[in-house]
TrEMBL record, chain A:
Key words, A-Z: Kinase, Transferase
Enzymatic reactions: dihydroxyacetone + phosphoenolpyruvate = dihydroxyacetone phosphate + pyruvate
Function comment: Component of the dihydroxyacetone kinase complex, which is responsible for the phosphoenolpyruvate (PEP)-dependent phosphorylation of dihydroxyacetone. DhaM serves as the phosphoryl donor. Is phosphorylated by phosphoenolpyruvate in an EI- and HPr-dependent reaction, and a phosphorelay system on histidine residues finally leads to phosphoryl transfer to DhaL and dihydroxyacetone.
Domain PTS EIIA type-4: 7-133
MF-aspect GO terms: phosphoenolpyruvate-glycerone phosphotransferase activity
InterPro entries assigned: DhaM, DhaM_N, PTS_EIIA_man-typ, PTS_EIIA_man-typ_sf
SUPFAM superfamilies linked to this entry: PTS system fructose IIA component-like
BP term (GO), one: phosphoenolpyruvate-dependent sugar phosphotransferase system
Gene source species: Phyllobacterium trifolii
Pfam family, one: EIIA-man
Record text on subunit structure and interactions: Homodimer. The dihydroxyacetone kinase complex is composed of a homodimer of DhaM, a homodimer of DhaK and the subunit DhaL.
Protein name: phosphoenolpyruvate--glycerone phosphotransferase
Amino acid sequence: MKGKTANVGIVIVSHSPLVAKGTADMVRQMVGDSVPLSWCGGNPEGGLGTNAAGILAAIEAAWSDHGVAVFVDLGGAETNSEMAIEMLGEPRSGMVAICNSPLVEGAVIAAAEAAGGASLAKVVATAQELSPS
Amino acid sequence: MVKSREGRLLSLQTDRELVLGLIEACHEAIVIHADDLCELDRAIGDGDHGTNMRRGCEAVYLDRERLCSLPLPQAIETIGMTLVMSVGGASGPLYGTLLIEIGRRLGTRENEADFATILGEAVDAVARRGRAHAGDKTLLDVLYPVQTEMVRQSALINIAKRAEVSAQLTADMKAMRGRASFLGDRSIGHVDPGASSCALLTTAICRYLREYRPA
């Protein structure tokens, strides 16, 4: 589905593979196959942690020419996601946004928004409304 | 940076020995202290800093023959990218950014005296990457003092001492970034694991360079 969909892609990044996969399952239950979706959980050895190369691969897998929204749990997930986005290079790096929102709620609400064809900016804004600023 | 007076051809040979020596010195320092770093991290974080740093250093070490065949700037940048890809925690992008930025800048500048400036710019990039400042109880609390010593052109032994003292001083700080910040005031009294690994690496590098004599 690489780049073919008109909908924004969703990427879930957690320190735990179980949390990442579980969150992706909940998103899938909500929107089916209408949104490109991928997840990355754990460090390069599969233990708890984060993995820049894996995040990069997840962004590629959920790629949409309309943009990709990335959902992260704790600090290292965010730092590694930022690094992965930079590694995508211009101009694609400018089409990926990390959402400042709770992981599960943010991803599900964002996916529902994305399934309706909303822009990346709208998808991100909807998810971020969940966060007290 | 390590250009010999005899010219560039010889300096490539020198780069090879230097890169290999630095990789081995840093790898040894982290492997020996990995458990200590995990223990520091268990007190105020998730307890994996030593494991993560060891994973990163092992990845670099396994690739050392290829890395030491590269000119120094590219070797440093490539080591940074290897750390990003292998560490598995926030320290990957942080140390990775430091080395990638140093390598890229070294490649475009000729003057050895620029190294303190290059390091300063690279440390600023690390601060932006981690959105952290001096005093936040992070590896920056070692990197900034080390950079200051380099601007002063201090002896290697003094740079190493400053790094070690600076890491210890993070015990008095309250963590403002990373998981340790979740502990608030309870983070006070513990040395920051990232600052500690940074001091270990600085000391290993300084010790190696003191003994290193370009051919």
